[in-house]
Amino acid sequence: MHSSVIPSIDENNPLYCPAVPAALYLKSLRCRSRQLAKSHHDLDLFQSYARVLEQQSSHSNSEGSSGEEGDIGSDWILGNYVTAGRGRLSGRPRQRDTLPPYYSHSWASNCLALGQGDVENMEATQPYNPSRKRKFSLSDLGAPPKYARSQPSIHDSSFDIEVRREKLNYLDAPSSPSYLKKNSSNPVPGVLSIGVLVDRLVSLLPSIRLQERLVELTVITADSIMKYLADNGHVHQRVLQCFQESDIKEISFASFASDENGLNLCARELYTVFSFPNSFLFLSELSFSGIRVHDFDLLHIQHLSRLAILLLNETGIGNEAVFLLVSLKRTLVRLSLAANPHVDDDAIPAIVLLSKLSFLSILDTGIEMGGLRRLASIIVAENRFIDIEIPFSCEAYIDGIHSKYLYHPLPPLITNHRGCPQLSEAALKRNLEAHAACNPSIVTSGTRPEMISRLSEILKTRKLDIIVKDMLDGNESDCQNFGSL
After folding, report:
1. pLDDT (tens digit, 9 = 90+) per residue, 306-332?
2. In what order do the strands lie in the sheet with 334-336?
């Protein structure tokens, strides 16, 4: 044997070696070991290893090349020398394998056609042959012998995957009780049903006998249930969570939500319920009137996609809270900021951005005539019409506007402040004296630049005040014509 042949490769069975018989491959290894031992006479390990292979060569040839690699306790390369305990490389005898033997495809197919009893009779009639151990796999999945070529397994079909796509519906629930079916309105698809809502509330508030109370209602809706709970002081964070998936349209918090006298300590956490995604999708009106609200609490309501009415009367908010409402500019049409003295003229830029407002209440706020004039001028310039409730101080100013300057100047007096620089000193003084007749605090003398500046300021204020007055009176046609004043 001059050289060994590289065995072919089976990807499914790395031990497969059909091109070189086992005896021929062993002989090649022995020859290579003998040659290696001659070049290393100092090493007893190579000499002993070559001697062991030489002794085993005659033993392997006597057994023949019938394809049986050895008995139960023999080794594939070193033979019985190792398993018998002789020499330096001796080891412990192997234990008998208890796994079932390998069966061919034809034999497995016959077993499927036979019954269980027939299969047992076939196994009982076959004598046990220890030398047959190496022919069979140690797997019950129909694997090939250890050194044989692998074949497709008959069990491959068990690993086929069938993909089925099913739509999950988290709103499935048992049908509503009969008394709910009688009084409740028609359910909206994709919305939490009234029956499920009532069941959740009953499990959460078992002591109020909610089912008996609902029978007295004419129509049972999410809004009517919320109104009853709010009027009786049963609304808290967990109750509001039950309404997140419902079609509730209006929520009005009563005084129970405040932390007065140490009660309802979790009132601040109550507002966090609105910040959950995809919750309160139908909510269009929200009232915090009379409840203490911090400015940044309004962060939780910024995502409400249908909120059109927001009442923040007497909540103690400031300018920062008004700026947080800008995210609602696409839906908000009615806003009340009444009785919040910390809201002043600095909040006007945020209010102006709420372009869809049709009603605004700034009653009893810190907004004065300067901020009101700025708001009115932008509204008129954009041809918007809005119903505004103004503070009492601004209302008193508008009512006494005839005492501030000449409200209706007649020619040759001017009404446009842009014409002041073209007037002579006599004309400037004549106009100032006409306004001073209504307001004695107006100074009529001075240098020409001083009189130009003083008359221009009076005419600008008059123009903006008339815009505010006509906007409050609802005189839309006059508001649109003030650009020529």
Report:
1. 999 999 999 999 999 999 999 999 999
2. 250-252, 285-287, 309-311, 334-336, 359-361, 387-389
